[in-house]
Amino acid sequence: MQLYNNLSAKERAALIEEAGKDRLTISFYKYAKIKNPELFRNHMFLAWDQLDVLGRIYIATEGINAQLSVPAENFNEFKTHLDTISFLENVRLNIAIEHDNFAFLKLKVKVRNKIVADGLNDDTFDVTNKGTHVEAEQFNELIEDPNVVLVDMRNHYESEIGHFKNAVTPDVDTFRESLDIIEEDLRDHKEDKKLVMYCTGGIRCEKASAYYKHKGFKQVFQLEGGIINYTRQVEEKGLENKFIGKNFVFDERRSERITDDVIAQCHQCGKPADLHTNCANEACHLLFIQCEDCKTKMENCCSTQCQEIIQLPYEEQKALRKGQGNSNDIFKKGRADHLPFKKDLRNIFDVLNKKG
After folding, report:
1. What is the per-residue pLDDT across 152-208, written as a single tens digit (0 to 9) for each?
2. How much is the pTM?
3. Chain segment 316-347, per-residue pLDDT in tens
4. Nearest by Cα to 173 from 343, 350, 349
5. What are the backbone dihedrals phi and psi of residue 31, each rounded to the nearest 5 degrees, phi first?
6. What is the pLDDT of residues 254-289, one digit of tens each?
7. Could you write out the DSSP letters of every residue in 111-138?
8. Among this protein's residues, is 199 annotated catalytic?
9. The one catalytic residue among 199, 266, 291, 306
10. Is 201 strand, coil or helix?
């Protein structure tokens, strides 16, 4: 049995281009008890590899979290396979607004301790006691309530390029950081305020809503299907779109444009810009926002130091990054000291004060 990719990303990209067939970018998640994640992982890899599915899928004893692309012509067969798995039958599939045939170039199905790194001990609270799920129309009505605090459960580099109007956008690099910050900032409003949350596809809110109910919040709501599902519902039902800017995504597209508003700025010159890039110096690889002018001037680098490094012979560059690990530092783009134009962060108290 082949349980690994036998093609490089470059080879796969060439095959996709040669085939010239449309691919669909899809995401879904499901919390469920999986007794043998490794066995389930192998089953999914074998089935999806035959359908030319590519993507990044995490499997744990608590469920599955998948971001992937599938050839459009294989979608029905892919959906039929999902329906053969009891807990995935009729699972909601978030189909991207904008598709890119090269969004994923490998099939990676990995076993993890959790499908989202939330840092929580699930044995300490009832993870099934979740908040109230609301669809786009009810969500629009709800967030106009003066007693609502709307919280973006994503990270700062996601909300920076797009978010819902009047949403709190926590200054965090990871989901786990936001949980305690939000609870602390709203500690005096657990009963008199409605806590409404959203994220990209809904998975982060799924666990967070149960956590906040455990922590004493009386009125907890979450946007069903996240920004992706909201955008599709707004278009299909002709609703007012209260999201502005772009939706950050974790694949080669990096974002989907929801509205024409550009709410971010180039981190190097300050011009309006909302296109993420990774620093061309692989020892840095910092994720940041760069306009086209700065991209040309800086050769896709975040600093003059990195620009000097990429001029060195490859072996020298390789030697310089030996033993270095970027970890989550690559996501500190909006706050890296050498980038002068940083995110204008808002906190919960600012929102509460505006609402009186």
Report:
1. 999 989 999 999 999 999 888 888 889 999 999 899 999 999 999 999 999 999 999
2. 0.84
3. 888 877 766 554 455 554 467 778 776 555 55
4. 343
5. -85, 125
6. 899 999 999 999 999 999 999 999 999 988 888 899
7. E-S-SS-----GGGS-TT---EEE-HHH
8. yes
9. 199
10. coil
Nearest-CA neighbor of 228 among 341, 95, 66?
95
Q: Is 342 helix (H, G, I), strand (E, B) or coil?
A: coil
Identity at 52, one-letter amino acid code: D
pLDDT at res. 245: 97
Q: What is the DSSP track for 145-188?
A: STTEEEEE-S-HHHHTTEEETT-B----SSHHHHHHHHHHHTGG
Number of Cβ within a 10 Å radius of residue 121:
7
88 vs 32: CA distance, rounded Å: 9
Instruction: Find where tokens 């609703």 sit.
Output: 239
Q: What is the DSSP string of 344-355?
A: ----HHHHHHHT
Residue type, 236: E
Report which of 310, 266, 261 is spatially closest to residue 285, judged by C-alpha positions: 310
Q: How far apart are CA 150 and CA 302, in angstroms?
A: 33
pLDDT at residue 333 in the model: 47
Residue 12 in tokens: 């796969």
